[in-house]
Amino acid sequence: MKNLNQLLLKFDYEQNFKDDDFYVGKSNFYPFELINNWPKWEKNFLNISGEKFSGKTHLTNIFIKKFKGIRIHSNKLCNKNLETVKLNQNVVLEDLNADIDEKLAYTLFNIIDQDNKFLIITSLKPIAEISFKLKDFRSRTRNCLLAKIENPDDELMFALILKNLSDRQITLDKKLIDFIIKRVDRSYSKIFEFIYKIDKISLKKKKSIDFKIINEALEK
To answer: Rounded to two decimals, what is the model's pTM?
Structure first.
């Protein structure tokens, strides 16, 4: 994890953002702490929810790298997966939604519970708010630790914008980033979309990103 205060002070655009870098703010502190404090959890089931691009998969990558485990995407859950689950202590179920095979998911939850394993479930909204049809499975989903990634604060927005710019090999003056932070929606997906817009406009016009390009992107 990079130190944001150092990032803000040094404002180093040559910074190398690696896959295991994760910027922690008030919005994602709780799920980050839970991930790093395994296995000292109150329950064996952890649900990390948050909008697209909020860092859910990034967190599970950190967990698997540190503590080992397997990852299963919810739309690929099958009997073969369940056999593999029995050989692993930690399991990540990605992108849980109402379209999952509920009988298989219920079996997965039972295996985790009976064998004292650990399951991390990621989802766009908290698992308790997803309308599952199978009563037994719905009951199981109520027995999860809930860790929601909230909207980013200014400091985290700065880091996210800087990261997205760096990925595109773009450098901006700090005053331009501050200008963006005050005007773009406080949303992970909106930040990602906005950086994409200004990059696209800049390339189309063959001009460096400035206030005019930023304002043009804001108006679209």
So the answer is: 0.86
